[in-house]
Amino acid sequence: MNRKKSHLLLLPVLLLLGACAGEQPQQPGQTYRILTLTPGDLTLTSDYAATLRGRQTVEIRPQVGGTITRILLDEGAPVRKGEVLFVIDQVPYQAALETARANVQSAEAQLKTAELTTSSKEALHARKVVSDFDLEMARNQQLEAEAALAQARAEETNARNNLSYTEVRSPVDGVASMIPYRVGALVDSNISEPLVTVSDDERIYAYFSMAENQMLDLIQQYGSLEEAREKMPDVGLRLGNGATYDLAGRIDAISGTVDEGTGAVRLRAVFPNPRHLLRNGGSATVIVPTHHRACLVIPQAATYELQNRVFVWKVVDGVTQSAPITVYKYNDGQNYIVESGLAAGDVIVAEGAGLLHEGVRIDTADAAGSVSTKTADTTTVADTAASAGEPTAQSEK
């Protein structure tokens, strides 16, 4: 009797333990954001290191030699075209001009004497008083006097020009560089450093290089090199301190040849510079945008890579399905432009792609765009992926 009671008491306990052992604790679902693909626009930018040059940069050197007696500009100051910047010792050049003027007067007097002689010889020759030889000699002397006068006048002009060159003037409007010379320095036309450099910086040219394959992309996008230059959008400029220049520029020149040493193509962008913020010789970064219209854009967090291929998780009939895609080779670091593998209207998991598997049940009831996932049986999911031969995001990790 006691043995029967013990069996009867043990049976409910065994049934209870069996029921507990058969029940699996339900894991809480994870939340993911889903995305329904629609065509949109995306602007990608590429950065290129650039060197800044003024619209016109002139190294000013003296045309005559001598000692600097006056410096009439401040270093870094704006200058105007025709403004006197330096004065070189004028005394020897003033004396040379006065000598040239005196030589001109002497030559003029000699010519008048020769003309009188010729006139007298012609009158005497008409009366048969002098011979033909004497007349020709007189005429030749007059021609010689005329040549001497022309030479004296040329020397006067040269002396006058040399005197004017002692005032070194700016040939352009612009801003002056630093001055390596001081009053008393002896200079001439062969000095190694210019007296000053004047840069016309009303407009600034930014010179930069682009890889040949990037240039080919532009040509294919716009149709030709000329079309690319005319239709490319405005470009930006990032200054050396990291700030963005507030005025846009345009690419106005593209080299027609590829540098054999670097495999790059030189380009020039021009920027207005009304406040003279940009300086000749400076460095900056040209920002070249590329606009993509009506394309499919997905976040990079929605993708995972396996064997150099990019995959996303499509939501098909409420279940995740791995889909390989092809993306545009350039990106902004946050998004991809999809070239193939997806179509407008497709639904994908927008983040956490590395945490999902094939065949995960997705609950799309959340109107906020996030979804709760109910993970299927672990053994079933693994068996499904293995039988299909498809990779999972976690196998990549």
SSE inventory with pairings:
Layout: H1 2-22, E1 30-36, E2 40-60, E3 66-71, E4 78-79, E5 84-88, H2 91-126, H3 132-165, E6 167-169, E7 174-176, E8 186-187, E9 196-211, H4 212-222, H5 225-231, E10 236-238, E11 250-254, E12 264-272, E13 283-299, E14 303-306, E15 309-316, E16 319-327, E17 335-340, E18 347-349, E19 361-363, E20 370-374, H6 378-388, H7 393-396
Antiparallel strand pairs: 1-18, 1-20, 2-9, 2-13, 3-5, 3-8, 4-7, 5-6, 7-9, 9-12, 10-13, 11-12, 13-17, 14-15, 15-16, 16-17, 19-20
Helix pairs in contact: 2-3, 4-5
Helix and strand element order: HEEEEEHHEEEEHHEEEEEEEEEEEHH
Question: Main β-sheet, in a few words?
Answer: 12 strands, antiparallel
How does the overall form come out from the CA principal axes? elongated
Q: What's the CATH C level of the largest domain?
A: Mainly Beta
Architecture of the largest domain, CATH level 2? Beta Barrel
| Number of domain units | 3
- Rg calculated over all Cα atoms: 44 Å
Share of β-strand residues: 25-35%
Helix content: 25-40%
| Distance separating the two termini | 64 Å
